[in-house]
Design goal:
Layout: H1 2-47, H2 50-64, H3 75-88, H4 92-99, H5 107-120, H6 124-137, H7 144-160, E1 169-172, H8 179-185, H9 190-196, E2 209-212, E3 218-223, E4 228-233, E5 236-246, E6 254-257, E7 260-263, E8 287-292, E9 297-301, E10 311-313, E11 317-319, H10 321-330, E12 336-340
Parallel strand pairs: 3-12, 5-10, 9-11
Antiparallel strand pairs: 1-2, 3-4, 4-5, 5-11, 6-12, 7-8, 8-9
Helix pairs in contact: 1-2, 2-3, 3-4, 5-6, 6-7
């Protein structure tokens, strides 16, 4: 009788073990299926199949909490991706709903996409406002270059296109006016007046309405470590240009101002005849922006574009032709210039 009881107990245990084994196998299969759903969602997301990706991510989120998954799943990344997918579909409220659940590490990306949303909606000035705030909030983020390029696109449109510059003035030409007089009156330049107003000739007539951009709030910073020149408007990023600078630390650091400007400058070399503009021997190119008369330091064209990014000059700052010609139009006598070496 005792043996019979033991056999029954063993049988019960074996049945229980079999049931547990079957349950475990089912559980493993279910976990595998859930992970396959996530993998499918990620694949669809990478392919840009936004609606299908959202559907698969939703399936995963509805089931994942019921199981102990064998590997860690970044749920915050899933929320970020679902927000991004909805953003691409133009479902902005849904995008924001998911982005609110994403972690802080995704905020720089989310804030960029929200700014870009304004651009796509036809609100470039709102986009600009948000991107300038982005730079202040995430000054060292890996996407800074991307943000700067978008801002430069907006700022170029402000200078040459239909977008209104923040301090832009509409001026009605009076008898006796000239572009020179108007530029001097409003601290602007003739070239910028012509560019902004699509003028093919400097001749103007009374009654014309001109868009005028005052330039007194611009300033220049030059980082010799990075060989980059930055243009700021009211202490906010406006443009960035690659440069070449002095070999053997010949470019001085310190505070300077623009003291003179010349188009197609003559190059005066001590002990030699003046070298006229256009000569292969004239290294100044099409523009000269003087900042240190005593040492003869200025900003000018790099007639050898391959010099950009290098330390090759006798102290001057060299820029690509298109860049120095743009900068020339945006600075006036007295524009502050700071030169430094970043760490």
């Amino acid at each position: 009788m005792r043996k019979k009881g033991i056999l029954i107990l063993i049988l019960i245990i074996l049945v229980g073990l079999g049931s547990w084994g079957g349950w475990k196998a089912t559980r493993v299969k279910q976990v595998k299926q859930i992970l396959q759903i996530l993998e499918q969602a990620d694949t669809l997301f990478e392919k840009g199949e936004w609606e299908a990706a959202i559907s698969e991510y939703e399936k995963f989120l509805n089931q994942y909490s019921k199981f102990a998954l064998p590997r860690k799943v970044d749920i915050l990344l899933i929320y970020y991706r679902m927000g991004y997918a909805n953003e691409k579909l133009g479902k902005f409220e849904e995008a924001d709903k998911y982005w609110e659940k994403a972690g802080e590490e995704y905020l720089p990306f989310i804030d960029y996409f929200k700014a870009d949303r304004e651009w796509e909606k036809g609100n470039p000035l709102k986009c600009r406002e948000m991107l300038l705030k982005w730079i202040k909030t995430y000054p060292r983020h890996e996407w800074r270059e991307k943000v700067e390029r978008k801002l430069e696109e907006i700022h170029t449109s402000m200078l040459r296109g239909k977008l209104t510059f923040p301090s832009e003035i509409t001026y009605q030409v009076k008898p006796g006016d000239s572009l020179f007089k108007i530029a001097r009156k409003f601290s602007s330049t003739i070239d910028l007046l012509m560019e902004k107003n699509n003028l093919s000739s400097p001749l103007i007539r009374p009654g014309m309405k001109l868009k005028v951009i005052p330039l007194k709030d611009f300033r220049i910073e030059i980082d010799l470590t990075k060989n980059e020149l930055y243009l700021f408007y009211k202490d906010e990023f406006f443009k960035k240009y690659p440069i070449a600078s002095g070999k053997d630390n010949l470019t001085p650091v310190g505070e300077f101002t623009v003291i003179n400007k010349l188009k197609n400058p003559v190059w005066y070399v001590k002990g030699k005849k003046p070298i006229p503009p256009g000569s292969p021997e004239n290294i100044l190119g099409s523009r000269w922006i003087g900042i240190d008369e005593k040492r003869g330091i200025g900003i000018h064209e790099a007639v050898n574009p391959q010099d950009i990014g290098k330390y090759v000059s006798n102290g001057c700052i060299r820029m690509l032709k298109k860049d120095v010609e743009e900068l020339y139009n945006l600075v006036i006598k007295g524009t502050p210039v700071k030169i430094y070496r970043s760490k």
